[in-house]
Design a protein that fits this description.
single chain; about 190 residues; mainly alpha; Arc Repressor Mutant, subunit A; 8 helices; disordered C terminus
Length: about 190
């Protein structure tokens, strides 16, 4: 077995650390904002959500890239979820999901009446979503807000893919009933890549 001199070893470490750093920075750029939003919905506080996401990325830094390569997003969401739930357990309080802020960039309309109507509909949908059981609410958010596949949601939540599909179906059915929508109107949103 060949040994390397300290200078060569230092250069190899710099190259490895540079590659690892670029890998973590790319993951951070792509997943930080969705993770903060997801953690915020779980813990109910923006500052605690940022702390949870920071811890999530610290865990990524210590993880071997080959172990999570190809599924960094679901891995990050799963770690974030576990950390957020641990945080809530430590506080011994479960905060109901607060009404989410409307995204001002989405659905900008020229007509103020149309904008107000869109906001009212979004508020109604968020209020209806908040009444669902936690497991349905979580899978619906991961599917609709974060665009995750059934398999990725299963990986994040620990449910089976079949159970994810069931929870999405039941959750969408309940939302339609609460919102008075026509059957099938909202279900198209949860269909797609499984």
């Amino acid at each position: 077995m060949a040994t390397t001199d300290p200078e060569t070893r230092d250069r190899m470490d710099e190259t490895t650390n540079g590659t690892r750093s670029a890998w973590v920075e790319a993951a951070l750029a792509r997943h930080e904002a969705p993770l903060v939003a997801y953690a915020h919905r779980l813990v109910g506080d923006a500052h605690r959500a940022r702390d949870v996401v920071q811890e999530t990325f610290l865990r990524l830094c210590s993880e071997e890239p080959s172990r999570v390569d190809g599924h960094v997003g679901p891995w990050l969401f799963a770690v974030c979820r576990r950390l957020a739930l641990d945080h809530l357990r430590k506080e011994r309080r479960m905060t109901p999901v607060a009404e989410a802020l409307l995204d001002a960039r989405a659905g900008r309309a020229e007509d103020p009446a149309e904008t107000a109507s869109t906001r009212d509909q979004a508020s109604s949908a968020l209020a209806a979503l908040a009444t669902l059981p936690e497991n349905q609410r979580e899978v619906l958010e991961l599917r609709l807000r974060h665009g995750m596949s059934y398999a990725a949601i299963a990986q994040v939540t620990g449910h089976t893919v079949t159970n994810v599909g069931f929870l999405l179906h039941v959750g969408m059915k309940a939302l339609r009933a609460r919102l008075g929508a026509a059957p099938g109107a909202a279900e198209g949103s949860s269909r797609g890549a499984r």
